Amino acid sequence: MLVIVGYIIVCGSVFGGFLLAGGHLHSLFQPVELLMIGGAAVGAFFVGNNGKAIKATMKALPTVLKGSRYTKALYMELMTLLFEILSKVRKEGLMSIEGDIEKPEDSPIFSKYPGILADHHITEFMTDYLRLMVAGNMDAFQIENLMDNEIETHHVEGEIPVHCVSKLGDGLPAFGIVAAVMGVVHTMASVGLPPAELGILIANALVGTFLGILLAYGFVGPLASLLEQKLHESSKMFQCVKVTLLASLNGYAPALAVEFGRKVLFSTERPSFSELEDHIKQSKSK
Question: Transmembrane stretches, by residue range (predicted)?
């Protein structure tokens, strides 16, 4: 929603200012210029990226129109789930959660938290490392190193759409210049026309530069920034699971382990100690 609002503000400010200055909007409507700029940009996008990058970008772009799913409620759901799992381990031993982690969709614990279960990546990340804990063949330092490597891989993979969109935005001003040059060439080839008509051709040519810059910095560039912010948000889920499980491996009680996880969250979504404690108590009473 904010993306649409932002685009409306950009268009209103630019075109509204142009109208207030006495300009005529019809002179900015140059579909041929848009064809040259947009077509060249899309073509360069396909040339500069492999199939995986193109697919990842196409999959990521629709998410910019959605609000963040990483809310305080979701984080509390995650930490309550971790608390329940670790409490079961503490009371009944690591082998007691084997059935839960092998088929989380059938687990009575995981099924209480559909928001987490719906996220395949975080569920797999959690169950994989719980499985390693059950195996008992790795110490905390080895698991931490493996977690760091997996989170880094997730981050690098998530940056692919960011880089693709950012590079696309970087190229738009240059393609705008290309369109403007093509317009100047057309104008020079029509030098025998009356001055009034030549002026119109020159104005049309300059629109290419304007459109390239506007599309780059008003439309495409901000999308890359938004995708990057969403990537950082998604990484917090993994970090929360990481520090909670490592705290448990180092001997901390479940209540303290989830407190480690709470501390790594962004302040805007981080629940207070009492909020998390009350949520856990309510979950236990169900």
Answer: 7-26, 32-49, 172-193, 199-227
Q: With b meaning 16 or more CB within 10 Å and e meaning fewer, what string describes 162-177? A: bbbbbbbbebbbebbe
**pLDDT over 90 at 2, yes or no:** no
Q: What is the C-alpha to C-alpha distance for residues 24 and 15, in angstroms, rounded to an integer?
A: 9
Report the pLDDT averaged over residues 167-187: 90
87 token code pair: 């409490």
pTM of the model: 0.83
Contacts of 212 (CB under 8 A, 6+ apart): 37, 172, 173, 174, 175, 176, 177, 179, 180
What are the residue ranges spanned by the domains of the chain? 32-286
The answer to whether 223 touches 165, Cβ cutoff 8 Å, is: yes
Distance CA 198, CA 253 (A): 79
* Residue given tokens 């962004």 in the structure block: 266
Q: Residue 284 carries which side chain, given as an amino acid letter?
A: K
**Whether the Cβ atoms of residue 159 and residue 29 lie closer than 8 Å to each other:** no
Instruction: Please report where in the chains the tokens 């900015």 appear, as a residue.
Output: 28
Look at residue 94 in the predicted model and tell me its pLDDT.
82
Task: Please list, in sequence order, all residues whose beta carbon lies within 8 angstroms of the beta carbon of residue 81, skipping any fewer than 6 positions away.
Answer: 109, 110, 112, 113, 116
pLDDT value of residue 285: 63
With 0-12 / 13-18 / 19 or more C-beta atoms within 10 angstroms meaning exposed / middle / buried, residue 245 is buried
How far is Cα 226 from Cα 209, in angstroms, rounded to an integer?
A: 25
CA distances to 56, 76, 219, 257, 258 from 248, rounded to whole Å, are: 35, 18, 46, 6, 9
Query: Averaged over 259-270, what is the pLDDT?
Result: 90
